[in-house]
């Protein structure tokens, strides 16, 4: 789901960052491209990193059960 939201943000040129306890931040590609791409990059790296970690753990578990 989160990766789909990142793809939508890239297509629309508008990224909304919501962190609990902090105000909502909206990054627009045409207004501030550097912060826009940095925010998307960090979000994608953290989301992708967690997915890779889960896949590695699942694969190790699957190989141990074989």
Structural class of the helix and strand makeup? alpha+beta
Q: What quaternary form is this?
A: single chain
Helical proportion? Answer: 55-70%
User: Secondary-structure element sequence?
Assistant: HEEH
Count of the separate structural domains: 1
- The side-by-side strand order for the widest beta sheet comes to 1-2
Q: What gross morphology would you assign?
A: elongated
Q: Termini, distance in Å?
A: 31 Å
Beta-strand percentage? 5-15%
Keywords: Membrane, Transmembrane, Transmembrane helix
Transmembrane segments: 36-62
Protein name: Transmembrane protein
Please, could you describe this protein's structure?
The chain has 66 residues and is of the alpha+beta class. Helix content is 67%, strand content 12%. A hairpin with a 7-residue loop joins β1 and β2. The protein is elongated, with a radius of gyration of 16 Å. It starts with a helix and ends with a helix. The relative contact order is 0.13. Keywords: Membrane, Transmembrane, Transmembrane helix.
What order do the helices and strands come in, and which of them pair?
Blueprint: H1 2-12, E1 14-17, E2 25-28, H2 33-65
Antiparallel strand pairs: 1-2
Helix pairs in contact: 1-2
Task: Offer a quick outline of the entry.
With 66 residues, this protein is of the alpha+beta class. The protein has helices at residues 2-12, 33-65; strands at residues 14-17, 25-28.
């Amino acid at each position: 789901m989160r990766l789909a939201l990142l793809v939508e943000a890239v297509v629309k040129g508008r990224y909304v960052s919501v962190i609990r306890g902090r105000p909502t931040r909206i990054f627009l590609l045409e207004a501030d491209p550097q912060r826009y791409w940095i925010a998307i990059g960090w979000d994608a790296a953290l989301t992708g990193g967690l997915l890779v970690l889960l896949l590695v753990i699942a694969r190790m578990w699957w190989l141990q059960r074989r």
